[in-house]
Write a structure and sequence with these properties.
The protein is an all-alpha fold and about 300 residues long. It has helices spanning about 5-20, 25-30, 55, 60-95, 100-130, 135-150, 150-175, 180-210, 215-235, 240, 250-255, 260-280, 285-290.
């Protein structure tokens, strides 16, 4: 059974208190039947993966709006995929902890948050009237592997990376009054609750790195790099482009080669990459995965 340090318990106590004060049930906090705003985008158009490309230039306004709708649905699908993995990692970690510790109890509070978030994202996809995107065989296998084996530094780094990327997009969405009200409300709820998760992961990651040996850290760097590449891969799923009449492979290739989108994903991951870099987790052979994902 693991022990807890005073600073870890202090953080967890504060996060548990914050959870009681600011948590939402998306099934009642969101008006799921409210009509959509005609012509409004679902994300800032300059954050679209095809913004600035020839494909974007050839699209009408309505087609661009439709593309951002499918990109939002794709991101929500990826969010459910990752949150399902995250919940299983946290529960597996909880299994070996002192159940009376605040640190362990906050892990359960985070799992409760993620359950609601996954329901919220699923309801969003349904309301958009589109099909969820499925993880590739490679990403599906990676998720199964992470949920079954990830511990220590690479577990918390993977959590932090995915949460920080989604958080960056959603902070911008929630503040943009020109966007669809539904997506702004979904983003607002997720940002408020994910702020607690980010702090929990950031502080615990530092502790895990400090107690890891060089071989363990070398392994963690590889796993973290693979997780980073998987997160970005889910944002350019071929089905997103097929849904708006673009060949899936062509759309994905155009997105990954798009300098605007490369800048966007570097922006979205900047805080996480900086934190991981300071801890020595973005280096060595694992850099091939970060470069493949255009994150460094």
């Amino acid at each position: 059974m693991t022990t807890t340090s005073p600073d870890r318990e202090t953080t967890a106590e504060r996060l548990l208190t914050a959870s009681t004060r600011r948590s939402y049930d998306p099934l009642v906090a969101i008006d799921w039947e409210a009509p959509f705003t005609p012509g409004a985008f679902w994300m800032p158009p300059e954050r679209s993966s095809l913004y600035g490309t020839e494909l974007w230039a050839a699209m009408s306004h309505d087609q661009r709006v439709e593309l951002t709708k499918h990109e939002v649905a794709g991101a929500a699908s990826a969010g459910i995929w990752f949150e399902t993995v995250l919940m299983q990692m946290l529960i597996r970690e909880f299994y070996d902890q002192d159940v009376t510790s605040r640190h362990a109890q906050y892990a359960l509070a985070e799992v409760a948050d993620e359950c609601r978030h996954s329901i919220m994202f699923g309801r969003l996809i349904e309301r958009l009237g589109v099909a969820p995107t499925r993880a590739s065989r490679r990403d599906h296998a990676l998720g199964r592997w992470l949920k079954a084996t990830a511990t220590g530094a690479h577990m918390y780094a993977s959590i932090l990376l995915a949460e920080e990327i989604l958080d960056a997009f959603q902070r911008e969405v929630m503040a943009d009054e020109a966007l669809q009200p539904l997506i702004r409300m979904v983003a607002r709820i997720h940002v408020v609750e994910e702020a607690r998760h980010v702090r929990y992961a950031r502080e615990e990651l530092v502790r895990q790195v400090e107690k890891s040996g060089p071989l363990r850290l070398a392994y963690s760097r590889i796993v973290i790099g693979q997780a980073a590449a998987a997160v970005i891969s889910r944002l350019v799923h071929p089905d997103i482009y097929r849904a708006v009449g673009i060949d899936g492979s062509r759309g994905r290739a155009a997105a990954l080669a798009n300098p605007h989108f490369r800048a966007t994903i570097r922006w979205s991951a900047a805080k996480a990459v900086e934190h991981l870099g300071r801890l020595g987790l973005v280096s060595g052979p694992a850099l091939v995965y970060w470069r493949r994902a255009h994150l460094v």
